[in-house]
Design goal:
Blueprint (H helix, E strand, L loop, with lengths): L2 E5 L2 E4 L4 E8 L7 E7 L6 E6 L5 E3 L7 E6 L4 E6 L8 E8 L8 E4 L3 E6 L1
Parallel strand pairs: 2-11
Antiparallel strand pairs: 1-3, 3-8, 4-5, 4-9, 5-6, 7-8, 9-10, 9-11
Length: about 120
């Protein structure tokens, strides 16, 4: 069965960096879009970044220039490099795989989420 597992979340001071990873198993995901979404307490889940099977990237305006999404198809893994973290980035981050790229309902598979906290 398909499984996505996020890792790399944690607590970092404002201005710091974290790198999230999401490893997929149970299939071949080369042609899938891979995306990152986040949900803060009391907020709707929102799009963060995505990368298509062709390698085209998409970013939310709030993270453009600070976050970078990449993928390693040999490892079925997608990454989110997060630099210059802000308190506003604090959320549970979810990895997804599917048609994508920027609409949550276009993804078929989701990870369990990993907490990211950018402390003030």
């Amino acid at each position: 069965q398909v499984q996505l597992v996020e890792s790399g979340g944690g607590l970092v001071q404002a201005g710091g960096s974290l790198r999230l990873s999401c490893a997929a198993s149970g299939g071949t995901f080369r042609s899938y879009a891979r995306g990152w979404f986040r949900q803060a307490p009391g907020k709707e889940r929102e799009f963060v970044a995505a990368i298509t099977g062709r390698g085209t990237t998409y970013y939310a305006d709030s993270v453009t220039g600070r976050f970078t999404i990449s993928r390693d198809n040999a490892k079925n893994t997608v990454y989110l490099q997060m630099n210059s973290l802000k308190p506003e980035d604090t959320a549970v981050y979810y990895c997804a795989a599917g048609v994508g790229p920027t609409i949550a309902t276009n993804y078929d598979y989701w990870g369990q989420g990993t907490q990211v906290t950018g402390s003030a």
